[in-house]
Design brief:
Layout (H helix, E strand, L loop, with lengths): L1 E3 L11 E3 L11 E6 L2 E6 L2 E6 L21
Antiparallel strand pairs: 1-2, 3-4, 4-5
Length: 72
C-alpha cells in the first residue's frame, strides 16, 4: 500500500511512503487519523505510518485507489 500526505503544498509528488500489505487477497481495514500535529495511518488496526512533518492545515480530499492482482 502507498500512503501519501500533502501538507499545505500544491499537488505534485507529495510525500509518498510504501507500506507492505502481507496478503492482498484478503479483506483489510484501512484507517486514517488526522490531528493538528500528526497524521496516523492504520491497516487492520496496526499503526503503519506516522507523519508529523507533512500535516495538512485545512480541509483536504481523501482519495482511495484500489488495484487488484491479475486473475492468474
Amino acid at each position: 500500500m502507498e500512503t501519501n500526505v500533502y501538507g499545505n503544498q500544491p499537488l505534485g509528488v507529495g510525500n509518498p511512503q510504501t507500506v507492505p500489505v502481507h496478503d492482498p487477497t484478503v479483506l483489510h481495514t484501512f484507517a486514517e487519523e488526522w490531528y493538528p500535529n500528526q497524521v496516523l495511518s492504520f491497516i487492520d488496526g496496526k499503526l503503519v505510518r506516522t507523519d508529523t512533518q507533512n500535516v495538512p492545515g485545512g480541509p483536504m480530499a481523501f482519495h482511495l485507489n484500489v488495484y487488484v492482482p491479475a486473475s492468474s
